[in-house]
Specification:
Layout: E1 4-15, E2 18-29, E3 33-37, H1 44-52, E4 59-64, E5 67-68, H2 74-80, E6 82-85, H3 97-104, H4 113-116, H5 123-135, H6 151-163, E7 169-173, H7 181-196, E8 200-204, H8 208-214, E9 217-222, E10 225-231, H9 232-237, H10 239-251
Parallel strand pairs: 3-8, 3-9, 6-7, 7-8
Antiparallel strand pairs: 1-2, 1-4, 4-5, 9-10
Bound molecules: adenosine-5'-diphosphate and magnesium ion.
The site of adenosine-5'-diphosphate has 11 residues, from strand 2 and helix 1.
């Protein structure tokens, strides 16, 4: 049996005339923490959304643990072991941090958020929510409401909500965006800690300094195409990768 947890084979996504993802191949093994980088517009978020089922590709296959995901609705993919911490955080503002995580607990609930609001939260789920919030460093603000918290905390809350699904594969879409370098490196440390505990993670990130610091392996996409994959330092020395980033800076 293959050790691959995630297999992406020849994926293409078009939005009208725009080819956001172009014949992309990529795979990830259990236990890995892989950084996924590329200039703005490279198709990173779109590829992530094809994995979770928010976008259906026109071509190609996606497998999780050997099981074909194409055509499956989002909640089934979650049940199979996927979880995504989104680039734009969207906590439930009328619930405190614990309840935000409690509501994310339990895969059966993901089908129907409305229903889950009326199910008695079990003491077990509250315990789990507290533990997760402590793990992500929010042990001090368990009862605070999201709108009173700075972005750095909300990014951690988003990670706790994603972890509440007990994912086989945790997808993180720019968790460090908007954070200062100190906050970013502390959240980077948390990502490493989660990985060391056995969590497989695919990390989309713009903060190259942090990606190079925390990820052994890096996958690069540019203009919808797979550009490079390998050991972090080798990838950063790759001429195509350098050119892709320099090209972006010139146009920025
Ligand atoms: N829903 C959409 N409709 C139309 N075009 C889109 C949509 N989502 C993304 N795109 C386009 O696809 C390309 C890749 O975008 P995206 O996946 O967000 O890149 P990245 O996350 O790497 O910055 C961009 O040209 C973007 O404008
Ligand atoms: Mg993006």
């Amino acid at each position: 049996m293959s050790k691959k947890l995630l297999e992406i084979e020849n994926i293409t996504v078009r939005f009208g005339g725009v080819i956001a993802v172009n014949k992309v191949n990529f795979s990830l093994e259990k236990g890995e923490l892989v950084g996924f980088i590329g200039p703005n517009g490279a198709g990173k978020t779109t590829l992530m959304k094809t994995i979770t089922g928010m976008v259906e590709p026109q071509e190609g296959k996606i497998l999780l643990n050997g099981e074909l995901l194409n055509g499956k609705p989002i909640h089934e993919r979650i049940n199979l072991g996927l979880s995504l911490a989104q680039q734009i955080v969207s906590p439930l503002n009328s619930f405190n941090c614990i309840d935000n995580v409690v509501l994310a607990c339990g895969k059966n609930k993901t089908k129907n958020l409305f229903k889950s609001l009326f199910i008695n939260e079990t003491a077990e789920e509250e315990k789990k929510a507290k533990e997760l919030l402590e793990i992500v460093g929010l042990g001090e603000v368990l009862n605070e409401y999201p709108e009173t918290l700075p972005l750095g905390y909300l990014k951690r809350l988003e990670v706790a909500r994603a972890l509440a699904l007990d994912p086989l594969l945790l997808l993180l879409d720019e968790p460090l965006a908007g954070l200062n370098q100190k906050e970013a490196s502390s959240l980077g440390d948390l990502i490493v800690k989660l990985n060391e505990k056995g969590q497989t993670i695919l990390l989309i990130e713009h903060n190259l300094k942090e990606v190079i610091r925390i990820c052994k392996k890096i996958y690069v996409q540019d203009n919808g195409r797979s550009l490079a994959y390998g050991d972090a330092l080798d990838v950063m020395k790759n001429e195509d990768v350098k050119r892709a980033y320099l090209g972006t800076n010139k146009n920025a």
